[in-house]
UniProtKB/TrEMBL annotation:
It comes from Cellulomonas chitinilytica. Keywords: DNA-binding. The lineage of its organism: Bacteria, Bacillati, Actinomycetota, Actinomycetes, Micrococcales. The keyword DNA-binding applies. This is Core-binding (CB) domain-containing protein. The keyword Nucleus does not apply.
Length: 286
Protein backbone atom coordinates (compact mmCIF):
# COMPACT_ATOMS: atom_id res chain seq x y z
CA UNK A 1 0.00 0.00 0.00
CA UNK A 2 1.15 3.54 -0.73
CA UNK A 3 1.94 5.88 2.12
CA UNK A 4 -1.20 7.82 3.16
CA UNK A 5 -1.17 11.44 2.06
CA UNK A 6 -0.67 14.03 4.80
CA UNK A 7 -3.22 16.81 5.19
CA UNK A 8 -2.02 20.24 4.06
CA UNK A 9 0.10 21.78 6.81
CA UNK A 10 0.52 18.48 8.72
CA UNK A 11 3.75 16.74 9.76
CA UNK A 12 4.61 13.06 9.67
CA UNK A 13 6.65 11.04 12.19
CA UNK A 14 10.09 12.27 13.25
CA UNK A 15 12.92 9.88 12.45
CA UNK A 16 16.52 10.00 13.75
CA UNK A 17 19.79 8.37 12.70
CA UNK A 18 23.43 8.68 13.83
CA UNK A 19 25.86 10.44 11.49
CA UNK A 20 29.10 9.49 13.23
CA UNK A 21 31.44 11.65 15.31
CA UNK A 22 28.75 11.77 17.98
CA UNK A 23 26.23 13.67 15.76
CA UNK A 24 22.61 12.78 15.05
CA UNK A 25 20.15 13.87 12.41
CA UNK A 26 16.39 14.23 12.85
CA UNK A 27 14.04 14.39 9.87
CA UNK A 28 10.32 14.91 9.36
CA UNK A 29 8.13 14.99 6.32
CA UNK A 30 5.42 17.66 5.98
CA UNK A 31 2.95 18.80 3.34
CA UNK A 32 3.33 22.46 2.43
CA UNK A 33 0.53 24.91 1.63
CA UNK A 34 1.14 24.37 -2.11
CA UNK A 35 0.26 20.67 -1.66
CA UNK A 36 3.81 19.38 -2.12
CA UNK A 37 5.63 17.11 0.35
CA UNK A 38 8.84 18.52 1.80
CA UNK A 39 11.35 17.53 4.49
CA UNK A 40 12.80 19.36 7.44
CA UNK A 41 15.94 18.21 9.24
CA UNK A 42 18.06 19.27 12.19
CA UNK A 43 21.28 18.02 13.82
CA UNK A 44 22.40 17.61 17.40
CA UNK A 45 24.85 15.92 19.70
CA UNK A 46 22.16 13.35 20.59
CA UNK A 47 18.94 12.06 19.09
CA UNK A 48 16.94 14.04 21.67
CA UNK A 49 18.85 17.26 20.90
CA UNK A 50 18.30 16.81 17.19
CA UNK A 51 14.55 16.30 17.78
CA UNK A 52 14.35 19.44 19.93
CA UNK A 53 15.97 21.53 17.21
CA UNK A 54 13.72 19.99 14.60
CA UNK A 55 10.62 20.82 16.63
CA UNK A 56 11.73 24.45 16.76
CA UNK A 57 11.91 24.45 12.96
CA UNK A 58 8.47 22.82 12.79
CA UNK A 59 7.05 25.55 15.04
CA UNK A 60 8.53 28.21 12.73
CA UNK A 61 6.95 26.55 9.70
CA UNK A 62 3.59 26.42 11.49
CA UNK A 63 3.84 30.13 12.27
CA UNK A 64 4.57 30.90 8.62
CA UNK A 65 1.58 28.87 7.50
CA UNK A 66 -0.74 30.66 9.92
CA UNK A 67 0.51 34.09 8.88
CA UNK A 68 0.05 33.26 5.20
CA UNK A 69 -3.63 32.49 5.82
CA UNK A 70 -5.30 35.88 6.34
CA UNK A 71 -8.38 34.48 8.04
CA UNK A 72 -8.64 31.13 9.85
CA UNK A 73 -11.05 29.60 12.30
CA UNK A 74 -8.88 30.86 15.16
CA UNK A 75 -8.86 34.47 13.90
CA UNK A 76 -10.53 36.90 16.33
CA UNK A 77 -13.97 37.88 15.08
CA UNK A 78 -13.07 41.58 15.19
CA UNK A 79 -10.19 40.92 12.77
CA UNK A 80 -12.63 39.24 10.38
CA UNK A 81 -14.92 42.28 10.55
CA UNK A 82 -11.98 44.61 9.83
CA UNK A 83 -10.92 42.40 6.89
CA UNK A 84 -14.46 42.51 5.48
CA UNK A 85 -14.71 46.30 5.82
CA UNK A 86 -11.35 46.80 4.12
CA UNK A 87 -12.47 44.53 1.29
CA UNK A 88 -15.71 46.37 0.53
CA UNK A 89 -13.89 49.71 0.72
CA UNK A 90 -11.28 48.48 -1.77
CA UNK A 91 -14.00 47.33 -4.17
CA UNK A 92 -15.36 50.88 -4.30
CA UNK A 93 -18.83 49.77 -5.38
CA UNK A 94 -20.84 50.91 -2.35
CA UNK A 95 -22.00 54.44 -1.68
CA UNK A 96 -20.27 56.36 1.09
CA UNK A 97 -23.46 56.43 3.16
CA UNK A 98 -23.75 52.64 2.91
CA UNK A 99 -20.15 52.17 4.03
CA UNK A 100 -20.72 54.47 6.99
CA UNK A 101 -23.83 52.50 7.98
CA UNK A 102 -21.94 49.21 7.77
CA UNK A 103 -19.13 50.61 9.92
CA UNK A 104 -21.63 51.88 12.51
CA UNK A 105 -23.47 48.55 12.62
CA UNK A 106 -20.19 46.63 12.91
CA UNK A 107 -19.05 48.80 15.83
CA UNK A 108 -22.36 49.07 17.70
CA UNK A 109 -24.07 45.76 16.89
CA UNK A 110 -21.48 43.09 16.02
CA UNK A 111 -18.52 43.97 18.24
CA UNK A 112 -20.40 44.12 21.57
CA UNK A 113 -21.88 40.67 20.95
CA UNK A 114 -18.95 38.74 19.45
CA UNK A 115 -15.72 40.64 20.07
CA UNK A 116 -14.39 38.01 22.51
CA UNK A 117 -14.98 35.05 20.16
CA UNK A 118 -12.92 33.54 17.37
CA UNK A 119 -14.41 33.00 13.92
CA UNK A 120 -15.22 29.31 14.49
CA UNK A 121 -16.89 30.15 17.81
CA UNK A 122 -19.63 32.11 16.04
CA UNK A 123 -22.10 29.23 16.14
CA UNK A 124 -25.71 28.95 15.04
CA UNK A 125 -26.88 28.91 18.65
CA UNK A 126 -24.99 32.08 19.58
CA UNK A 127 -26.25 33.87 16.48
CA UNK A 128 -29.84 32.72 17.15
CA UNK A 129 -29.78 34.04 20.72
CA UNK A 130 -28.29 37.33 19.58
CA UNK A 131 -30.89 37.80 16.86
CA UNK A 132 -33.64 37.08 19.38
CA UNK A 133 -32.31 39.96 21.48
CA UNK A 134 -32.18 42.24 18.45
CA UNK A 135 -35.74 41.26 17.50
CA UNK A 136 -36.93 42.21 20.98
CA UNK A 137 -35.58 45.71 20.27
CA UNK A 138 -37.13 46.04 16.80
CA UNK A 139 -37.78 44.17 13.59
CA UNK A 140 -35.61 46.61 11.63
CA UNK A 141 -32.62 46.15 13.91
CA UNK A 142 -32.93 42.36 13.75
CA UNK A 143 -33.03 42.30 9.94
CA UNK A 144 -30.09 44.71 9.64
CA UNK A 145 -28.11 42.70 12.20
CA UNK A 146 -28.76 39.42 10.40
CA UNK A 147 -27.79 40.86 7.03
CA UNK A 148 -24.49 42.39 8.12
CA UNK A 149 -23.41 39.33 10.15
CA UNK A 150 -24.24 37.08 7.19
CA UNK A 151 -22.03 39.24 4.95
CA UNK A 152 -19.14 39.05 7.41
CA UNK A 153 -19.39 35.30 7.96
CA UNK A 154 -19.75 34.76 4.23
CA UNK A 155 -16.19 36.04 3.86
CA UNK A 156 -15.00 33.40 6.36
CA UNK A 157 -16.74 30.67 4.32
CA UNK A 158 -15.16 31.84 1.06
CA UNK A 159 -11.72 31.87 2.70
CA UNK A 160 -12.39 28.33 4.04
CA UNK A 161 -11.98 29.45 7.64
CA UNK A 162 -15.33 27.75 8.40
CA UNK A 163 -17.40 25.20 6.50
CA UNK A 164 -20.76 26.97 6.51
CA UNK A 165 -22.34 30.30 7.34
CA UNK A 166 -24.02 29.99 10.76
CA UNK A 167 -26.43 32.83 9.96
CA UNK A 168 -28.03 30.81 7.16
CA UNK A 169 -29.28 28.20 9.64
CA UNK A 170 -31.10 30.63 11.93
CA UNK A 171 -34.85 31.14 11.88
CA UNK A 172 -36.48 33.54 9.46
CA UNK A 173 -37.28 36.86 11.07
CA UNK A 174 -41.00 37.43 10.60
CA UNK A 175 -42.23 40.90 9.79
CA UNK A 176 -44.76 42.10 12.37
CA UNK A 177 -48.28 42.81 11.08
CA UNK A 178 -48.91 46.47 10.37
CA UNK A 179 -51.59 48.63 8.81
CA UNK A 180 -50.43 51.03 6.11
CA UNK A 181 -51.07 54.66 6.99
CA UNK A 182 -51.40 57.64 4.69
CA UNK A 183 -51.78 61.36 5.27
CA UNK A 184 -55.38 62.56 4.90
CA UNK A 185 -56.68 65.81 3.38
CA UNK A 186 -57.03 67.57 6.72
CA UNK A 187 -53.48 66.77 7.77
CA UNK A 188 -52.17 67.90 4.37
CA UNK A 189 -53.96 71.23 4.74
CA UNK A 190 -52.42 71.73 8.17
CA UNK A 191 -48.93 71.08 6.77
CA UNK A 192 -49.47 73.40 3.79
CA UNK A 193 -50.80 76.22 5.95
CA UNK A 194 -47.95 75.85 8.45
CA UNK A 195 -45.38 76.08 5.65
CA UNK A 196 -47.17 79.00 3.98
CA UNK A 197 -47.17 81.09 7.19
CA UNK A 198 -43.72 80.08 8.50
CA UNK A 199 -41.59 83.17 9.30
CA UNK A 200 -44.01 85.47 7.45
CA UNK A 201 -45.64 87.27 10.38
CA UNK A 202 -45.09 91.02 10.82
CA UNK A 203 -43.01 90.56 13.97
CA UNK A 204 -40.46 88.29 12.31
CA UNK A 205 -37.15 89.96 11.54
CA UNK A 206 -34.87 88.97 8.71
CA UNK A 207 -35.47 87.75 5.16
CA UNK A 208 -38.71 86.03 4.36
CA UNK A 209 -38.80 82.45 2.99
CA UNK A 210 -38.23 82.20 -0.78
CA UNK A 211 -40.93 79.60 -1.45
CA UNK A 212 -38.61 76.62 -1.84
CA UNK A 213 -40.04 74.80 1.19
CA UNK A 214 -43.57 75.00 -0.22
CA UNK A 215 -42.29 73.64 -3.54
CA UNK A 216 -40.49 70.77 -1.82
CA UNK A 217 -43.66 69.81 0.06
CA UNK A 218 -45.69 69.76 -3.17
CA UNK A 219 -43.05 67.66 -4.97
CA UNK A 220 -42.99 65.14 -2.14
CA UNK A 221 -46.80 64.96 -2.04
CA UNK A 222 -47.09 64.63 -5.81
CA UNK A 223 -44.32 62.07 -6.35
CA UNK A 224 -44.14 60.17 -3.02
CA UNK A 225 -40.39 60.84 -3.13
CA UNK A 226 -38.31 60.99 0.03
CA UNK A 227 -36.82 64.33 1.03
CA UNK A 228 -33.37 63.42 -0.33
CA UNK A 229 -34.85 62.23 -3.62
CA UNK A 230 -37.00 65.34 -3.99
CA UNK A 231 -34.02 67.64 -3.44
CA UNK A 232 -32.01 65.70 -6.06
CA UNK A 233 -34.52 66.24 -8.91
CA UNK A 234 -33.00 68.26 -11.78
CA UNK A 235 -34.71 70.12 -14.61
CA UNK A 236 -33.66 67.35 -17.00
CA UNK A 237 -35.57 64.85 -14.81
CA UNK A 238 -38.88 66.72 -15.20
CA UNK A 239 -41.27 66.43 -18.15
CA UNK A 240 -43.91 69.17 -18.47
CA UNK A 241 -45.26 68.27 -21.90
CA UNK A 242 -48.78 67.22 -22.86
CA UNK A 243 -50.60 65.25 -20.22
CA UNK A 244 -49.63 64.91 -16.61
CA UNK A 245 -46.21 66.23 -15.61
CA UNK A 246 -43.74 63.54 -14.56
CA UNK A 247 -40.47 63.41 -12.67
CA UNK A 248 -37.80 60.70 -12.84
CA UNK A 249 -36.39 59.80 -9.42
CA UNK A 250 -32.77 58.98 -10.29
CA UNK A 251 -30.73 60.35 -7.42
CA UNK A 252 -30.66 61.46 -3.81
CA UNK A 253 -28.86 63.94 -1.57
CA UNK A 254 -26.34 62.45 0.88
CA UNK A 255 -24.26 64.04 3.63
CA UNK A 256 -21.25 61.82 4.45
CA UNK A 257 -19.68 62.27 7.85
CA UNK A 258 -17.00 64.95 7.70
CA UNK A 259 -17.54 65.56 3.97
CA UNK A 260 -19.60 68.02 1.90
CA UNK A 261 -23.19 67.22 1.00
CA UNK A 262 -23.57 66.11 -2.61
CA UNK A 263 -26.00 64.56 -5.08
CA UNK A 264 -25.61 60.82 -5.52
CA UNK A 265 -26.85 59.20 -8.73
CA UNK A 266 -29.30 56.36 -8.38
CA UNK A 267 -30.25 53.56 -10.83
CA UNK A 268 -29.91 54.58 -14.46
CA UNK A 269 -33.27 53.10 -15.40
CA UNK A 270 -35.77 54.62 -12.98
CA UNK A 271 -39.52 54.43 -13.33
CA UNK A 272 -41.29 57.66 -14.25
CA UNK A 273 -43.30 58.95 -11.31
CA UNK A 274 -46.46 60.98 -11.76
CA UNK A 275 -45.58 64.45 -10.52
CA UNK A 276 -48.99 66.11 -10.22
CA UNK A 277 -50.75 66.24 -6.86
CA UNK A 278 -54.38 65.23 -6.78
CA UNK A 279 -55.24 68.40 -4.83
CA UNK A 280 -54.23 71.95 -5.65
CA UNK A 281 -52.30 73.87 -3.00
CA UNK A 282 -53.81 76.95 -1.37
CA UNK A 283 -53.22 80.28 -3.08
CA UNK A 284 -50.73 81.41 -0.43
CA UNK A 285 -48.34 78.56 -1.29
CA UNK A 286 -48.53 78.69 -5.10
Amino acid sequence: MSRPRLPVGAFGEISTRPLGNGRFRARVRYRDTDGRNRQLEAHGSSAAAAKRRLRLKMAAVNADHKSSAEITGDTPFTDLVAYWLEGIKAEGELATSTLERYEWEATHLLHPAFEHFSVREITVGRVERWLTQQRAFSYARATHSKKILSLVMGVAVRLEAIDRNPVASTRRIKRPPRTPTAIDDLELDVIRNAVATWRRDANHKGPKPDGQLEAIIEVMVGTSARIGEALAIRMCDVTLGPGKPTARIVGTIVSPKGKPTYRQDGPKSAKAIIGASSRSPPASSR
